[in-house]
Amino acid sequence: MVSVAFVCLGNICRSPMAELIFKNLLDERGLSSDFRVSSFGTSDCEEGSAIYPQAKKTLVMHGIPGSHTARQISLADVKNSDYILVMDSGNLMDILRLTGGKYGEKIFKLCSFTASPRDVADPWYTRDFERAYEDILDGCKSFLGYVLNNKSSLYGKKI
Ligand code: 4NP
Would the pTM of this model clear 0.85, i.e. be above it? Predict the structure, then answer.
């Protein structure tokens, strides 16, 4: 079992999109029982909120099911995860502040696994939820390929 936590600032746009997109990829590939997938915000500013309406609409347009309630990440959540996948450099700094610089070996920017490492475009500011979806899908597919190539318990499973 590989545990993956996606992290953004508010946990209402990017990281819940990533959680549901990644769960959908796993479901399509028959890999759901090999992973535990969650998402969190570095901030408590949206604690208890549902997925932001335009993020939810974008997921629905792409046939991605599911819902999520926003929650702030704790140090225990970091300890209990194999991979912490943040959306941008600001999230990375916030998480390392939370951990006091520890656990760096399992904290990555999601799009660092892609052919063109970058931050996920933040739709809170760009208002371009489709672009965020494309960045997140690219990151999730690339990360899944990385895990399947590197986790011996998953060798032989198809990307
Ligand atoms: P998220 O988006 O981090 O992708 O969930 C944001 C949500 C809320 C705020 C900023 C970004 N905010 O400033 O309240």
Answer: yes
Q: Which residues contact ligand 1 via a Cβ below 6 A?
A: 8-14, 45-46, 124
Distance 69 CA to ligand 1 centre (A): 14
Count other Cβ atoms within 10 Å, centred on residue 93: 12
* Residue from 40, 49, 89, 124 whose mutation best tests the ligand 1 pocket (most atoms within 8 A of CB): 124
Angle at 59 between CA 25 and CA 80, to 5 degrees: 55
Element (H, E) at 93: helix 89-99
Digitized pLDDT (tens) for each residue of the chain, 159 residues in all: 999 999 999 999 999 999 999 999 999 999 999 999 999 999 999 999 999 999 999 999 999 999 999 999 999 999 999 999 999 999 999 999 999 999 999 999 999 999 999 999 999 999 999 999 999 999 999 999 999 998 766 766 665
> Which one of 88, 94, 119, 122 is the catalytic residue?
122
